[in-house]
């Protein structure tokens, strides 16, 4: 028979420093350790207020089960060695209701594999995850919070890395404009084409830090008519203004204020699209 934890204190030699005393484990931990939970248990409670109903193996949550946390949030799905691992759904308690937050694959208590993340106001991500972040191919729906009345959404489909847009992607905006090209660190970076809603105007060229840098801009072009060159020269304000006036005929790609834009799409806030300003093609 195993001794009570209060009687199992160990004294070890500590050389010139005397003896070191190992503190006993809490009594509740001792009772949990000797319970040897195996198979299905209808209800196991923690002193923190958590509650688990499901399968166990070698005294760890293993198999299928539902864990309800002290704050009311709930996970229902598969477990492995005491961690969320496999397919499962996480719910958030909001008053009398439960709001589904994530449904899909888990790996060691984090989103891992294919899954769906449910954000505020109808925002949604469907795709691949790694270590709790968007990683791989995925489709993100962003709500256009600047639009009043009926909800409108932006849609991104493409590559992700460490929770940010990275690589080739397709961004369709709520106003009908579309960008196809390369992203880096969540910004337009590299070669890309921006199509305007009228389907007759576009900018095709190089992007840096979410801004058009050098390329060709065409608007309502007739057959055989040459495209207008656009080059942003940082040190030549006069030349820039001429290029801007030549190229600008309508509002071009909307951008976001870098100081307030959302860099981590995992956080669903209103700060991502609430600050809009004109394209660098406009004065």
TrEMBL record:
Ubl conjugation in keyword set: no
Organism for this UniProt entry: Physcomitrium patens
Subcellular location: Cytoplasmic vesicle, Secretory vesicle, Acrosome
Pfam families in the record: MORN
GO cellular component terms listed in the entry, alphabetical order: acrosomal vesicle; membrane
Cross-referenced SMART domains: MORN
Main location: cytoplasm
InterPro entries, alphabetized: MORN (IPR003409), MORN3 (IPR052472)
Record keywords, A-Z: Cytoplasmic vesicle, Repeat
Source organism, top-level taxon: Eukaryota
Protein name in the entry: MORN repeat-containing protein 3
Its job: Assembles a suppression complex (suppresome) by tethering SIRT1 and MDM2 to regulate composite modifications of p53/TP53. Confers both deacetylation-mediated functional inactivation, by SIRT1, and ubiquitination-dependent degradation, by MDM2, of p53/TP53, promoting a proliferative and cell survival behaviors. May play a role in the regulation of spermatogenesis.
């Amino acid at each position: 028979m195993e001794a009570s934890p209060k009687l199992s204190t160990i004294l070890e030699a500590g050389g010139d420093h005397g003896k070191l005393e190992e503190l006993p484990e809490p009594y509740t931990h001792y009772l949990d350790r000797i319970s040897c939970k195996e198979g299905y248990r209808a209800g196991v409670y923690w002193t923190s207020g958590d509650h688990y109903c499901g399968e166990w193996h070698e005294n760890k949550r293993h198999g299928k089960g539902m864990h309800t946390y002290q704050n009311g949030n709930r996970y229902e799905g598969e477990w492995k060695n005491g961690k969320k691992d496999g397919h499962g759904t996480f719910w958030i308690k909001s008053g009398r209701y439960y709001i589904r937050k994530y449904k899909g694959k888990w790996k060691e208590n984090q989103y891992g594999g294919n899954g769906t993340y449910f954000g505020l106001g109808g925002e949604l991500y469907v795709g691949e995850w790694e270590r709790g972040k968007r990683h791989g191919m995925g489709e993100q729906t962003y709500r256009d919070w600047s639009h009043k009345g009926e909800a409108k959404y932006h849609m991104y489909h493409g590559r992700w890395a460490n929770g940010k847009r990275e690589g080739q992607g397709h961004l369709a905006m709520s106003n009908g404009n579309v960008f196809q090209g390369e992203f880096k660190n969540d910004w337009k970076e590299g070669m890309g084409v921006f199509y305007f809603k009228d389907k007759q105007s576009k900018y095709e060229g190089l992007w840096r830090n979410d801004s058009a840098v050098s390329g060709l801009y065409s608007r309502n072009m007739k057959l055989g008519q040459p495209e207008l060159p656009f080059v942003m020269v940082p040190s030549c304000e006069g030349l820039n203004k001429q290029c801007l006036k030549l190229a600008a005929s309508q509002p071009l790609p909307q951008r976001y204020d870098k100081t307030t834009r959302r860099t981590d799409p995992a956080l669903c806030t209103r700060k991502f699209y609430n600050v809009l300003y004109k394209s660098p093609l406009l004065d």
